[in-house]
Amino acid sequence: MNRELRRVSLVVLAMFAALFVSSSVIQVIAEPELTDNPLNVRTLYASYDEQRGPILVGDTAIAQSVPVDDEYNYQRVYEQGELYAAITGYYTLNQGVTGIEASLNDELAGTSGDAFLSRLNAIFTGQEPQGNAVRLTIDPVVQQAAFDALGDQQGAVVAVEPATGRILALVSKPSFDPNALAGHETGQVIAAYDQLVDDPADPLANRAIAGDLYPPASTFKVLMAAALIDSGQATADTTVPNPPALTLTGTQTTITNSEGGNCGGTEQVSLADALRLSCNIPFAEFGEQLGQQTIREYAERFGYNSSVEIPLASTPSRYPVEAESTDRVQLSAFGQGAVDATPLQVAMTTMAIANDGVLMQPTLVDSVLRPDLSELSSFEPQEYGRPVSAETADAVTRMMISSVENGAATNARISGIDVAGKTGTAENAPGDPYTLWFTGFAPADDPRVAVAVVVENGGGRGDEAFGNQVAAPIARDVIEAVLTR
Amino acid sequence: MGSATATRAPITSTIRVRLRTPAKLRNRELLLLVPAAAVGLGATLLVDLGATGAIDTGMLALVAIPAVLALVIHVGLRVIGRESDPFLLPIALALNGLGIAMIHRLDIAGGRAGWEADAVRQVAWTVLAMVLAGAVLVGIRNHRVLARYRYIAMAAAIALLLLPLAPVIGTEVNGAQVWIRVFGLSFQPGELAKIALAIFFAGYLMTARDSLSLMGRRVLGIRFPRVRDLGPILVIWAVSMAVLVFQRDLGTSLLYFGLFLVMIYVATGRASWVILGVGLFLAGGFIASRTLGYVGNRFLAWLDAFNPEYADEQSYQLVQGIFGLSTGGILGTGLGQGDPDIVPFAQSDFIMASLGEELGLIGVFAILGLYLLFVSRGFRVGHEEPDDFGRLLGVGLSFVIALQVFIVVGGVTRVIPITGLTTPFLAAGGSSLVANWIIVALLLRLSDSIRPARPGAAA
Questions:
Q1: Residue B264's closest chain A neighbor by CA?
Q2: What was the ipTM of the complex prediction?
Q3: Class in CATH terms, A217-365+383-483
């Protein structure tokens, strides 16, 4: 009997060994995979167990987690949700996370490596562990001014400090209320989400950095002028023939200047006048001279064809990489055709001109603060690149000043201040309303702000209105808000 | 039994003799009872601090009751079971207390209080179970008398198995027809049946082992039993299959049949019984999985548990339990600080997942270690008991605990498909507690009759 009993003991040992192994596999070896399994609601609950850090503008929390009495313990609340929706994004139970909430999730959740010590400290001091706070570079007054100036229009505004890259305002309209997506009633959240997705105006699109992109239209002439001068192909005074109409090379397509007629009434027109009056035909000619590869090289120096992380990832603006026919190059030289841009990209071009040719990395994050509000890390201005020389930037600045003073962008004038600016009026498909642009900076000699404004649907006026009539006044409001701070 | 009168007179004299020698084993037991009681009390304290941040003195007082009863049993053993094993009582107390703490923790999560609280009822059942265990110790002074009642035990086992199928009192819970409900109390008679079966098997095999050891024809190099001896194993197999088909409970069926196979193997030393039995059970199980929808479903939900198609329905409990365990990781979330209440039946079928989530792998290993120690103490009885009946009963009762732990924890950790058995001592449920505490009492009684070979002691 004892021999049999020993064998049974071995069987029992084997059974328990199987249990030791199976529990080790589940609790240790497969643990990361199980934690990431989308069916695992504990991972979700755990993200609510600790108080998520707030998002601050100045010292005001625009997003914060407040204690509630349900299984999630905390409710995310967005103060002035619509005003900041394009920046904060939303934090939902099961419809995803966007904006700063997503880009800085590790900091807000307190799971980043930096937060480890404070968590350890929390364990020993018995404090509830808490996420870090993220303070934005946004200026609430400028943000509000941009939000109000855009009014009920569909479009976007980006305002940046050229010397540092700090984003002062970032608005996308129509906006939405992130609070509607932050609830804990899954059914209601899904209903609210579906409603936003089904909305033809697409409020969830962040038009300032993502969305469908827009032809930059005449705002691209700023980049063109900079490329022409910086590459040595032209100076402000270089002239090209000035016909009232131009047939694009190798096609039957005829283009005109937007005001009709030729550009300023002379036989030849200079680069400076072409930019001041925003004429298409001279830029088509300049574009043909400069060539696609050089234009592309400069466009990429300003940020085209790359995603910029502010730290929200922007959609890359596009300048064609593949070789194009001459007529397409002519079209893209005044911002039509195959070139598409985000308002952020247009603002980056302007920023570099404003900052003596040095493009600073645009960012929304000023600092990350520990729960006790001591600083964990703070923002240091970083160079994105030096697309053009200081002299080039200076020459382009002078052209942009004239454009506002006595050119195509007069509605951006502010008395007593030199404003440098450029309008844009993008044609879309025939019969579709225009997309209206303005980009500029002020004061021109010591820029405190660079802005890009885009308004869809011709500002409600179809193909009647120009950027100067709709977008320039919005930019002026934003610039004034910065200058009166 | 002519020897009965002969042994009666010396018992009083040995008691007199032993009272003078120090009760070494009992002192060890007392020493072990202190940490064992601390497990239940400490866990309850941590549960309250972790989940509510306040100390629930009422609950602590309730958890102290089993500890006090264990002390009473301990004192009783000093008189009527001086040589009984010192580990069994502390292990049972520790597991029982830990179970109550976790059930209390799930009461907090579910907002249950007072008589509605599962933990309060668990304490009440524990009291009943320990009183019955005490009664067994007092009433059965010599385990050999049980051998006489082997056929009564068989009848009792069959009656207990049939009870849940009886009209009016039989109740179906989660598809399994293994419950009875009397006066609002539900009870799983199958838990008690396993004791009755162990007694019957031990008694029957004690007498039949010689004929069952005789082997017939040789097939594939293994001698198989004679056809005329196949009756008993076929009957037990039929009963197990009946449990599977009519009571729809794979776990219970497996438990009874496994118990029988191990006991017949130990009794006869013939591996062919095991091969035959396993073959029979697999064949029956295979046919059942093809013909009975619920068995087939459980198999699918086990093999393909993480398929989203099953994860919301059939395998929801299993998958959520596994997520609970993985969340616990090595160290656990801490008592009162996880989300074990996500899992259905977290306080009964899945209490190991609840404990694993909050105590981590360390806790799971410790609990499994306690079971292993308990079973090894029981096997020691089987090893050293002087009579065949005692040996077989000791082996059977300890193996049934081991097999039950394997079936339940194996189900939770996806080693085997989920069944409806309870985790001994830990899970919420009166019948399980009563049955397992009676097993403790029987093993204590059996171990007491092991006479350690001491110099001068009569053999």
A1: A4
A2: 0.90
A3: alpha beta
